[in-house]
Known about the structure:
Layout (H helix, E strand, L loop, with lengths): L7 H9 L2 E6 L2 E7 L20 H5 L19 H7 L1 H17 L8 H14 L1 H9 E10 H14 L10 H11 L4 E5 L2 E9 L6
Antiparallel strand pairs: 1-2, 3-5, 4-5
Helix pairs in contact: 5-6, 6-8
Amino acid sequence: MTSNNLMTNELKQILTGENMWVNKKYINPKSLSFRASVLILTNHNIGLKSDDTDGTLRRLHIFPAEYEIKESDVDVKLEEKLLSELEGIFLLAIKGYRRLKNNNYVYSSHRESDRYLSKMMKNTNPLRAFVKEKIRKCSDNFITYDVLRESYNEWKKQNGIDSKVKINSKIIYEEVSKQYSIVERKKSNGVRGIKHICLMEEIGK
């Protein structure tokens, strides 16, 4: 990681088995292919400013350990107890592997992981999180940039997001079009906006 941000390009290369250049001191660089799952243990909040695309998020399974053990509750014999349960721990690992294999090596969704990823996404790129959460495809519907900005600012307040980054119509359209390729820029009665999308609360009205 660099400045608490995952090096997502390198991580994806490792996970998908792409060739990577490996530099070792005093030896010519080599192109090697790795294939591995990566376990990262950290006390830092993870950021995704370099790459917050769906391809990256799909490959992340984050399990936050947010419970803080009081000094009075520390079990000094924990290692000894775990060592006495190695057989049971191993059987649990085998059970988990079989379930993963039966699921074609696709990890199941986990509520806490999904919650943390959603929280991380909101802090890293709140506009993209807003688009994913609040905007849906609606054929022929038209929504103005002013309405989108107003809804976005209200959504930030509700989620406790203190982002000072100003967004203009170009930035809004670029983010929406990444999620919905069918959208179109439109000007109606002198007011600019986007066609073929609507806000979640408008659905069913």
